[in-house]
Amino acid sequence: MKTKSFLLALILSVGLFTTSCSNDDNEGETLVPLEGKWDLSKTGTVINGTETLIDPVENANNCRKDYIELKLDNTINVGDYDSAVTACALTVQSGIYSRSHNNITTVINGVTVTQDIVNLTLKELKVKDAAGVIRVYTR
Q: What is the number of structural domains in the chain?
């Protein structure tokens, strides 16, 4: 009888221990990885409480989509296709990025920008900056 009681107490203790432990460090944070190449697919803002997203003007010249490439070593490449001088000329700027909970901070050419990660799935990254500008990237 003592063996059955001890075994029951042990099982209950393990069950209570595993259900009482949690990791509050990631509260509200999505754990989908940021790394990879993300194409700019929508831009917008919130107008009168309604989110309005449109196809980016940057993508209107029949060029490839502007993009961000986030690498494992916390470097970032920002690709911008522009037809002002020559058709679909690509300019790439490099910098660094960091993620803190649901924010991403980039530093490119000495300019620091922090954006809230509004949505992050395996196929979509939606960010919003302090001015309220929303950018949706897809992969």
A: 1
- SS3 at position 1: coil
Instruction: Please check whether residue 116 lies inside any domain of the structure.
Output: yes
> Is residue 6 a part of any domain in this protein?
no
What's at 23, amino acid-wise? Answer: N
End-to-end CA distance of the chain: 60
pLDDT tens per residue across span 39-78: 999 999 998 889 999 998 777 678 899 999 999 999 999 9
Helix, strand, coil shares of the chain, percent, nearest 5, are: 20, 50, 35
pLDDT digits (tens, 9 = 90+) for 6-40: 444 445 444 434 444 444 444 555 578 899 999 99
Phi, psi of 98, deg, nearest 5: -145, 155
Range of the domain at 89: 33-138
Q: What is the DSSP string of 40-81?
A: EEEEEEEETTEEEEE--GGGTTSSPPPEEEE-TTSEEEEEEE
CATH code of 91's domain: 2.40.128.280
**23 occurs within a structural domain:** no
pTM, full prediction: 0.75
